[in-house]
Q: What sequence folds into this?
């Protein structure tokens, strides 16, 4: 794999960030219930990479916490976690919906946060083995759909200004909140309609 700028790897940083965000969310559930996530992702190779991961994880947490207490959002996550059928299909629908109008740093943050909340909900529903699947799905989606965009936009190091702005200004009713509620609630409550639309084309 070619090295990116400053000797840092956007792939390693992205995978470590997914793991960090999900593990951070899982701190609120008993550790006995959570399987180890380490072998699933590449590990960071330098102090510099770890600093980038830590800072990005903090900003994603701030963005996510702005919607965390909203009951509609929690109900929607419940709906996705408990919906019948393939969880991978559900995850893919959520991810595709997030990026329906293009990729932005903020929407990448939203996807990672949603993965963390889904992981918590599945552990609460006594499906801890599914947490490893969520990590793997998020990593796979990142590698296939987001990594190229991230590299084209200067790497993770260029995400800080937009994510910092989002973490300061996104409030209830703001852009991320609106996007989250629309795609998650729509998926949970209108999955049959979504399925029909997707398969009609």
A:
């Amino acid at each position: 794999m070619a090295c990116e700028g400053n000797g840092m790897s956007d792939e390693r940083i992205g995978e470590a960030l997914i793991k960090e965000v999900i593990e951070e969310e899982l701190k609120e559930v008993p550790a006995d219930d959570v399987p180890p996530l380490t072998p699933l992702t590449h590990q960071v190779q330098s102090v510099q990479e770890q600093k980038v991961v830590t800072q990005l994880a903090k900003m994603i947490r701030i963005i996510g916490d702005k919607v965390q207490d909203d009951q509609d959002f929690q109900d929607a996550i419940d709906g996705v976690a408990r919906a019948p059928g393939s969880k991978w299909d559900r995850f893919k629908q959520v991810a595709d919906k997030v990026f329906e109008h293009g990729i932005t740093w903020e929407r990448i943050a939203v996807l990672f946060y949603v993965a963390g909340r889904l992981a918590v909900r599945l552990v609460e529903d006594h499906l801890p083995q599914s947490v490893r699947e969520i990590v793997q799905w998020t990593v796979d989606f990142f590698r296939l759909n987001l990594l190229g965009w991230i590299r084209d936009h200067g790497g993770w190091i260029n995400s800080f200004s937009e994510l910092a702005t989002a973490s300061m200004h996104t409030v209830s009713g703001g852009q991320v909140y609106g996007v989250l509620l629309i795609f998650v609630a729509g998926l949970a409550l209108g999955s049959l309609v979504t399925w029909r639309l997707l398969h009609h084309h």
Remarks:
- The domain at 7-200 is CATH 1.10.437.10 (Apoptosis Regulator Bcl-x).
